Request: fold
Amino acid sequence: TLTLSATVFAQPLPKKLEHNEKMAWWRNAKFGMFVHWGPYCLYGGVYNGFNQRRGGAEWIMNRCKIPVREYRAKACTFNPVDFNAEELVLTAKNAGMKYIIFTTKHHDGFAMFKSNASEFNIVDYTPFKRDIVDELAKACRKHHIKLGFYYSQTQDWCNPGGGTIRKEMKEGWANPDSVAIDNFTQENLGGWDCLQRSASLDDYFRKVAIPQIKELLTNYGDVAVMWWDTPHRISKETAAEITAELAKYPQVITNDRLRRPDFPGDYKTPEGRIPHAKDIERVDWETCMNIGSSWGYKSWEKNWKSAETIIRNLNTIAARGGNYLLNVGPDPTGVVPAPALDCLRKVGEWMRVNGEAIYATQRSEIFPPWGECIRKDEKKNSVYYLSVFQWPEDGKLAFDTKYTVKEAMLLADGTKLKFTKTPGGITIQVPTQAPDKIATVVRLELKEK
Ligand code: FHN
Reply:
């Protein structure tokens, strides 16, 4: 009968992966690159000669109340001719990063990929015409870097249906019929008239967001992560529809920002901060943080973080059992700003020597005063990596442990270190000068009692 044949030919859903199996690569990876890039980079945090005062430069349209038509006209000029996906992927890889999370669509609604759901995308709307997500996916596959997609599911400032737009529409700037300022002519508003407009948020999900999510999941090979953002204003039903779509791709890991609290995803996402160890016990988590002070490119950035800060943060995060997702914002030509590249190069140098202390490690539950203690369970024994930020001037490094230490060495060059037992643990004899002023790693092999 009809019913029987429908049952027989129905496509079975792929086998559900066990949670631990699915999370394994992510837990081992520890360090990833976040990339915030879209037409907002054309402003670089400056509008009409004024520096944007609050928020990341990717929020410039909202913060400076740039009319939709004007913003879209600006987006028409996006032509990042120096973008080279392989260069970006290799920048991440050489810094020791194992995955990239790329903003496929941020709150401005612009898709960095070819989309049939909205013409407001890099291929159909700009002279560049290249599918950036596709190029990135290919480069990531070539260099064995996992690729995840940031997708802002609840906001689209260029579409009346998009998320937070109602309030902004009352303010005028987000009204799609608002008049562009003088320096944009009707001619360079290209594509405007045929753009999608959704009447409501539901309509937006149906016509734009869900079709785009499907495009992302099907057109670019294996997707490692779906990274949602701003988890408000999405109905339970729509979130469930998205989750049902995701169920077809059991390998895809998701963060916790689809809809709170009923769609917790696979891991938590503290933003711009490293949580206290006691607040993130027995959960997977990832700190996302800027390498400067803005997610999107800011031409007047002055607060670049040093390699020392990044390396120490990475150690602290590893010691507390988390991942570090470090953000860069490429400029209008498609290139990561030089101070960020310089920092990542130094981080890479440290990682090439000391990566063993970061990858595939676990939280240690020991928080020494001079730095961090990171744990790795090996077949027979466990290893502690003591990452020393404040070097002991007397050459005596005190470490409290209830375990028996079999061997101590400097990770960088394998120099064996002598140690003596103390009532609470051991004292390790180390050189009086810190071999690495940022973080010297002492590797301890333990024999557990
Ligand atoms: O509003 C965004 C912001 O621009 C950026 O994308 C960050 C990254 O975590 N998420 C939002 C704020 O939570």
About this structure: The longest strand covers residues 440-447. Residues 56, 58-59, 229-230, 271, 288, 295 surround FHN (CB under 6 Å).
